[in-house]
Amino acid sequence: xxxxxxxxxxxxxxxxxxxxxxxxxxxxxxxxxxxxxxxxxxxxxxxxxxxxxxxxxxxxxxxxxxxxxxxxxxxxxxxxxxxxxxxxxxxxxxxxxxxxxxxxxxxxxxxxxxxxxxxxxxxxxxxxxxxxxxxxxxxxxxxxxxxxxxxxxxxxxxxxxxxxxxxxxxxxxxxxxxxxxxxxxxxxxxxxxxxxxxxxxxxxxxxxxxxxxxxxxxxxxxxxxxxxxxxxxxxxxxxxxxxxxxxxxxxxxxxxxxxxxxxxxxxxxxxxxxxxxxxxxxxxxxxxxxxxxxxxxxxxxxxxxxxxxxxxxxxxxxxxxxxxxxxxxxxxxxxxxxxxxxxxxxxxxxxxxxxxxxxxxxxxxxxxxxxxxxxxxxxxxxxxxxxxxxxxxxxxxxxxxxxxxxxxxxxxxxxxxxxxxxxxxxxx
Length: 428
Known about the structure:
Helix content: 25-40%
Oligomer: single chain
Strand content: 5-15%
Structural class: alpha/beta
């Protein structure tokens, strides 16, 4: 099952940390004492470089006022494109195919409005039933602009077990009446990686456009969006990429679609050299910039400059390698120490199929998460019974993995979870 050696001791975990070639990046992040932060798949930690780039943009506002759009270390007018070029390295795209803009949901609305063109009997949008709710809401909302009975035009990919998808079940949903497909790169609960390359090929063989929500895959696995010929993709930048709460999101549009009119146009959809001509008809940007709308949210964009500098310095290949090792080590520790307590591992145990987090289920999951927090461990609860554990390559250690498993064992042995209510907090 496992590719790495395994020794169930703290000393072995310390040995792995000593030989970790990414260990120097840990000191770049603000880590709280007596706390093990394993929730980087919900919100990544602040790095010193992200803090510095935010302060630089604030300083340019202070120094230049309105002239900050064209002056200073990072002129604001070109900042979305500059950050987009850095994101392109991570998602395997050409720089002009990626723009930093909007939020996940806004960008998804933009992509549906742009590429959903129902004609004849081809009216359905394929989406999976395990997807993050915002994707379901956006599809339902967009279909509501076209049809009164929206459920007739949604094709759900169904899961046999509520955690995973069989590749063939996804392909079987690509029927003749489908106009558009939107799927996650990594399932947000189970962490299963979908084969984006193969699914894109299957969709295109049937004349269907396909896009991916990369919120839980960007920064945790490698992508080759351009070479895979993906039509579009969108994602948030505050999880594995550590861009900060509310960070401006990312958007990929394949260069073959650059002449497609944006479904939701705005001033920043304009070609840069024409934007201030104030024309009454849009002259759209010749690249992914055409799918922006309003002015960039500069203070939510600024931390990405530093965060992505750090990320690209480490390199997605090395990050993915260590991420696999961390999650694999957790699973091995689980089977050594936690197998008797009623947990179930509902993430893939095959490395190549698993994203950047572990997903455990337990009937007392909400209570257990609260007990973990009381012990200084920050996990992520997902209703009704899920615990997500995300050891992040840039700032977490193998010894922390060992320690968290031991804390879980203590919580279960001593039934420490019983002092808490088995219900989620307002923000789970």
